[in-house]
Structure of MoaA/NifB/PqqE/SkfB family radical SAM enzyme:
Amino acid sequence: MSAAGNRLLFAWLEITGLCNEFCDHCYADSGPRGTHGTMAVQDWLNVIDQLADMGTVDVQFIGGEPTLYPSLPALIKHAHGRDLGIEVFSNMTHIRPELWDAFTEYGVKLATSYYSDSTEEHDQVTQLRGAHKKTRANVQKALALGIPLRGGVVAVRGGQRVQEAAQDLTTLGVGTVGGDRTRAFGRASNGAAPTIADLCGHCAHEKCAIGPTGDVWPCVLGRFLTMGNVLEMPISDIWGGAQMTDVAAEITAVHEGGVQSCTPPQFLPMCGPCGPCVPSVGHCDPREAESAATIAAPA
């Protein structure tokens, strides 16, 4: 895949594998025993510079739980200084005062997962007592501060109050509420090997993910498909390079040049399902939104 015809417009920056929650469906297999990996702060600053120099438009800091990364405010400030659009995907349970300051000062957008309007059910999913109360309170605080925030409701178990969860977010004032299903990656795979067929097919098209050890993946779910490592070479050499070309060819071979219907993960800020796209990615393929569409538009 030629880099000239496939600009890198968006990048997930997975700055940590540490998380204070331990959700059974976590695609990244993150949790309290996770680490910040081998990428130093300066390495992340270098990556941000390289992305900006390549014309990347948006980055999303993700984890793990990115708010547990001590230098997140510094990374946000640097990304803002390089004119990158910034979103932080957080469980919204652990936001320090200096992070609120950074969010408001540098125009950061937030995104969060929400599993139920029921405290008990939400906390059962996250396996963190008090998570629902903290997340809900911080959603309210973000909205009060005028910070743009979108919510995603992931259906992880039968009978889950997903519609009520979406309605609760809407009632709080969250303007964009998306939905997602459990995806067979990480802990949600129950030990099964990940496959390209489980990906949507948009991977490595205008987007990539960079993990805590510097590995570059076609997306956060495609972490079993390594395209290079930013500790070994610049992202500009990886993007469109030999390893990326091979990975893209594998994805194309499985998906036969097509892509699945538009039911992307709710941690993807560029679309939905059928939600507004960020300016850097102006294409969608909303042929079938499945049950997630219902979640995205609660009555």
